Each structure stands twice: as C-alpha cells, then as structure tokens.
Amino acid sequence: MKRTVKEVSPLKIFEQETYGKSYSTHRYCCEADLAPEPFHEKERDFVFDKYGETERHKKWIDLRKPVETISKLQVPLFSFFLDGSRRVYKLDDIEYNNRVYPILLGQIGASCCRRNIEGYIKNFRTDNRLILAVPSVADQDGGKKSIFFRNLCDKINAESSLKRLDLSLYKIISYPDLSGRDYADLAISNLHDEMLGMEKEFVNWLVKEERVLTPGNMLIKDGSLEYKNIKRGSFKDISQLKSNYNCVIGVSKRFNPEKSCDQKGKSNASLIAQLPLYHRTPAFKFKSNVATGEGGAVHFAAWYVRIRHIKHTVSPFDGVVKVERLLVDDRTVRDGLESDEINTISAHIVWERNPTCYGSDQRWANHLYPIHLTERCLKSRRLSDHVIMHLL
Predict the structure, then answer these.
(1) pTM of the full predicted structure?
(2) What superkingdom heads the lineage (predicted)?
C-alpha cells in the first residue's frame, strides 16, 4: 500500500527554520471591505518651478481642434498601457525574543497591454508574484546580503505544499524593527515598493529588450511617475532611469488639486474645477523632492485635462485627469515641453476615454478605457482571496 506523504505548509517551514513560535492567528485580507477611497490622493511636496511648456498660457487651452484633427487621422498615439497592483494578506503572528510580529503576504502584479495596428487591445505581459514580508529579526544571518531568506525561499518552494500546486514564492523580504511604528504598516510599505519596482522593471523591459516604445507608440502608465527612491531592487533609483521615460506619460485618476500652481505659485484648484470639457490647464514644472538620486535632480511637467462634462459627475474634479511627463534632457528641463506636443498628447487622452465603464468603477469619470482593460487583465490573473487564505 502506497504511503501518503504529508505536505508541509510554507509557514511551518518558515517557523522551523527561523526558530520562531507561530500563533496560527486569524487570516484576512488587509485591503478587503475598505471604505471608498478618498478622492484626493496624497501627493508629495515638490519645488515649484513655474512654466512646464514653451508657451506662457495663463488660462485654459482649448483642445477641440486638435481632437478633431486626430479623429481624421485615426492613428492612436498610445500603443501600450501599464498598471501595477498589490493585494496584501495577514497570515500569522510569530514570536521572536518574547516579541510578536506579523507575517504578511503580498500578491504583487503588473500588466502591460498592447494595442495592435487593427486597434485591438491584448495582453502583452502580465506577471503575478507572491512575496512574503517578515520581520528582519527572523534572518538567521543577520541580514548579510539576504542569503538566508533566498535559501529559505528556495527550500519552501521545493519542499512545501506550493510545489504540488505549481506555485512558488517569488522572494522573502523583511521589514525593520522600528520602535513606535506599526509592523504591519512597515510590511505593507515594503510590499508597495516591490510593486513600484515591478512597474519600473516593465518599462525597462519595453525600452531595453523589446524596444517597442517610440514617439508614435507611447505608453500610458496608470498613476504618477514620481517614484520615490527605494532601498532594494535593480530599479530603485528613478534618477538613473530617466532615459527610459522619453515615451511614457503617467495619468492619475485621483490627485490633490492644491498641488497645481500658477506662474505666481498660487493654487490652481479653482482653475481645474472650472475646466470646460476638452480643455487643459497650463503645464507647470516641478523638481521632485523624493526622486532625486545618484543621477541628479528629477524634473516633471504636469497638467490637467477634462475628459468628461461636469454635469455628469459628482465632484468638480471628477472627469479631470492629471498628466505627468518626466523631463529627460537639459532642454526640456530648461524650457519645458513644446506646447504643441502637450496639446497632441492631451487630445489623444481625450480619445482614450470612450467607451465608458460607467457604473463598474467609482472612478469611472476619470478612467481611460485602455487602462480600465489593463486593470481587468491584471485582476483576472490574480489568485482569489480564498486560494490565498488556504495556500500557506
């Protein structure tokens, strides 16, 4: 009679190898059943540097003529769309030296969709990674080049129940033991950094390996391009990756309108709120306080575009998106982007708004439809919460 080999759970192996004590506590998704997201995204402070474009506009810029022009050409400017996501789970509590720490699992993903010449949008690349976030005290080598965690990750993948399911941990990362800080928040912050690093990895792959991004085949990245420098990974310093972003724009559905200023440094919030349909604000330029690294200062141009009529929305800022472009050379840092180029980009963004995903997302008024499809592509390839809860 064939004997059945009892499978060992990944967390059991982790407990044994790190000499911790598991409490087998209640498991839950840290991001389930949350209240609706705040409309204003928390944005970082920056050094305002006045104009971000060659023309000195003081009022809205009407985009209806460039929108009409590109409608006749029927050649979209944007061919690639990128979105990253994270979903975090509390799996257990573990004790070391009479102190109890949480163990979290992040399901970190990124998806890039491509629009072909016939206009069809298809998945180009989607990666989904399982990353375990644990306290740094669990490292038996004392954090020396993370060799211990790499070896432990390999052991879990080879000997645990994950192997039968054809799944694996991508890596094990640690969060610091900082007095007065919530350990779960530290773990989630590090997992979020992993997601941002994954987005930068995708852009680098599109530019250096696939070589598909050109001025006529640009990429829209969902969210801001103002990446802070992080401590880990090959893509931690955005200041050294500036050349990758020559054909990339970031589009944010949520933003803080107080972060936009006029040429005198005063808030442009009212200008944004009153934007007529298919108009944009003047572009402003700023130097990031968090993205500066070994490659020097990082400058951006940013502006706002209204893609839906205010009469169909709840808030005056619904239907408006924030657009960012990283300034990659000395000329654009000095003079800003060409205003005609900003108009062209903005007009193409207007065309990306339809068809609407009305009702399927509370952010519908600010959605660009290809980004909506990219989000759906990414979520469709994610493991369900039920699977994750019983996986480790």
Answers:
(1) 0.90
(2) Bacteria
